[in-house]
Structure formats: structure tokens, C-alpha cells
Amino acid sequence: MARTASAAATGDRRPSLVDDAYAAMKEAIRESTFAPGYQASAQEIALRLGMSRTPVHEASLKLQEEGLVRIVPKRGILICALAPDDIREIYDVIVAIEGRAAELVAALPEADRQVIADTLEHRTADMEAAFASGDLTAWGQADAAFHRALIEGARNGRIARIVQTVNDQMHRARMLTLRLRGELPQSIADHRSIIVAIRAGDPSAAHAAARGHRLRTQSELIPLLESLGLKHF
């Protein structure tokens, strides 16, 4: 009986350790602490994170499914780099999915969609304040929070999981180009157009506004990345 209780306790702890390793590795990848192209054994990564090897190895399996790392037999874990073509593909996914998400939010009962619209308005106001103060990091965080709230508002778990995966892949490129992009005020205006359509309960207009916003961003970001001459990042 004691052994069963011990095994149960171990089982309770194990997912938490793996979750912790997953979160730590993802954050290190997103913020380029583990830079694109970095390769190391699970043991080396565990030492850098102050963790044990087994949770790091198990976390890397999940991160590989999400396209953030590649496990190379006998050579360790490789942090995946992206090319401009990868970003183009990622945006193609986002354009389609966020348009549908906005459509779903706009079709919700009025009370529900007004609550979501209020949240989107707050995030947009945060973007405006951050831009006015020149705090582009805060602008990026508020922008991400807007899109996260839009996706969560659609109440579709599969959409949320897909978007989270591609957003994690794209994060480095967004942060790399944030100070070089000239369309930040236009993004604020685009967000308000999405909010207006949601408040009005107009799924077609919400879809068009969200899709147009992401298409416009894609049309600026991809040429900017190419102009920097970066083949991988």
C-alpha cells in the first residue's frame, strides 16, 4: 500500500516537472536565450535551466511537435530557426484562422460579445498608451494580448491550440522587427475596426477586418525580413 501511495505521489509530481521544463524551454526559445541553431544535449539544457534531464527530454518531445525544436539522434536538441518563407506560411495560417475567430465572436449573443469587445478595447488602449510613451515592448505585449483575447473569445479549443503554436514560432520575428515597422498606428486603427464589427454583431465585417489586418501586417513584415538579409532567425 505504501508503494502504491509513493508511486501515486511520484505520478503527481512528474507532470509538474515536465510542465515546468516545457515552460522554461519555451520561454528561453521565444526570447532567444536559446538562440536559433543552438544545439545541446538534454543534460546540458537541464543544467542551464537548473532542472533534471528527464523532464527536459520529455518537454522537448512536445516542443518538437510544435516546431520549436528538433531532436537529432545522438546529437541532442536543436533550436529550430525560421526563414522568411516560414513566416509567410505562418501568416497564411493566421490570416485564415483569425478571420474565422473574429466571425465566431461577432456571432455570439450580444452580452457575450460586448464583454469580449470591452477586453479588446482595453488591450487596444494599452497599445495606444505604449506607443505614445515609446515603450515598444509593452506595445508588443498589448498587441499579443489583443489577439489572444480575440482567439479565446471564439471559444474553439482547436483554433486556440493552432494559433498558440504558430504564434510561438513567429514571436522571435515579431520582436526582431518591432522597432523597424512603420505600421504600428495603423494596427491600432485595424483593431478598432474589428471591435466595431464585433460590437455590431456583424460576422462578415469582423471576418473582413481581422483578415485584412493580418494581410496588411504580412505584406509589411515579410519584405522587411527579406530586406534585412536574414536567411534564418
What does this structure look like?
The protein is mainly alpha-helical and 233 residues long. The protein folds into 2 domains: 13-79, Orthogonal Bundle (Arc Repressor Mutant, subunit A); 84-227, GntR ligand-binding domain-like (Four Helix Bundle (Hemerythrin (Met), subunit A)). It has 9 helices and 3 strands; from the N terminus they run H-E-H-H-E-E-H-H-H-H-H-H. The protein has helices at 2-30, 42-49, 53-65, 84-106, 110-133, 136-153, 157-177, 184-199, 203-227, and strands at residues 39-40, 69-72, 76-79. Strands 1-3-2 form a 3-stranded antiparallel β-sheet. A hairpin with a 3-residue loop joins strand 2 (69-72) and strand 3. The longest helix is centred in the first third of the chain and has 29 residues, at 2-30. It is globular. The N and C termini lie far apart (53 Å). The model is unreliable at 1-13 (pLDDT under 50).
